[in-house]
Amino acid sequence: xxxxxxxxxxxxxxxxxxxxxxxxGLFTNLMFGFFRAxxxxxxxQEQTSVNGLSIRxxxxxxxxxxxxxxxxxxxxxxxxxxxxxxxxxGADLLRPINYFSYWLGIDIGRAFGSLIIRxxxxxxxxxxxxxIILPESLIQWSLFALSxxxxxxxxxxxxxxxxxxxxxxxxxxxxxxxxxxxxxxxxGFYFPLALFPDWLANFCRLTPFGASLYxxxxxxxxxxRGAELLQGFLIQIxxxxxxxxxxxxxxxxxxxxxxxxxx
Amino acid sequence: xxxxxxxxxxxxxxxxxxxxxxPASFVMEVLSQAMILGFFFAAxxxxxxxxxxxxxxxxxxxxxxxxxxxxSFGMMDMVxxxxxxxxxxxxxxxxxxxxxxxxxxxxxxxxxxxxxxxxRLGKIIEGLIIFIIGLSLSNVDWTLGRxxxxxxxxxxxxxxxxxxxxxGATTTFWTxxxxxxxxxxxYGGSEIMSYPxxxxxxxxxxxxxxxxxxxxxxxxPMIYILDKPNPLNMPVFTSFLAPFIAIxxxxxxxxxxxxxxKNYQSTGS
Lengths: 263, 269
Prior knowledge:
heterodimer, A: mainly alpha, 11 helices, 2 strands, 76% helix, globular, B: mainly alpha, 70% helix
């Protein structure tokens, strides 16, 4: 357990050292947040609410998705893959810590660092420009925090699984691009899922991608309550359990297949 | 010149051949990329159907803007792959760029021939399909001038995006890393160009008119092609500035690139 926390700590500090990169990423995400918000405002025009999503909620959605990109590292993460191709994986597998936990530790540290240095400042700046919605009670803040932790676990397990493809093939980048493309599509990243036709929105909600982006945002802007809220958390837990178990099974298979290159 | 060109084609042929080693997986990747990218437009279309129009523009009209920008960006991203700062940055950091400088061949040509990402065909196909959707959904009063302006616009946009890539690649000589901020102008620029630009706040519009003059390459020209009213009250000639702006931008970017190479200091790694 000590090794796990040490991994988180080191990774967190590493993330904080890249100040220029973080700042430049922050500015980039902020600008995209402005773009998306402007599009939503132009769509809403005089309407205050569409499909239960208010214009304020939609604008908050645009800012929040951009704040969370870095934290969830949803669409671009090949770190594990790189270690497989340059041979570092050999040493990593020998560490006195479970391989999955090792990478999870790294990812938690990275996500936390990114949240502090990139996600939070971004949302703060965004909120100066727009009239956004904030959670109204301590309970809602806590539920949001919980949904974010779950979301990171889903996001990480998915990325771990995708990166494991590199244990089998010397060029898994194509698989990665496809897999991360699915995250783009089903997470509700482009436009709020609430603005989609019901059948599509409902489908996206059930996927691990909707569960790790759309759901936490819904909790934040407070347009999900009661049974639906509980259902959302259950979907998250289902995906965590499924993806973690699956990740371990695939890893066990992969280690048998793995050919370590060079070094 | 002829020697240079034949060398460039040779470099590109090697690139293409190596990428076509596994044709089935290549085709799969191109198609899946086209689908994934196309979903952004589909998501927009589904969202727009809840509202009807955006800033007075219909789905078909936006599709023309969108398809054009995607198609041109895809073309550029393939041809100017070597200047993609995501790939060029590491070249500078690792010192591989020094190797290129030592060779007795024009450096711009070597960078251009160093990478040719054929799978960008996915984006090109996607852009083309969206453009065709736009054609079928909108009522354009096609005159000869309008028909001829489309290919000119594509060429202008390719040069425009290309110049942004060259600018971006050049900055890595000093920054020694690719800065994500460049994405605001390249990928962000292409996203902005996909919408009727009067919907954006003034500050964003000014940024994309005077710093990165994207507005002259998609929105103003499309106003002429679709014969739409111009809520920004710009004079008619702004619809036809695209070639002038694209060529100037491209020329400037090459100047900057040469300046960067002159002042290049190796990382020494």
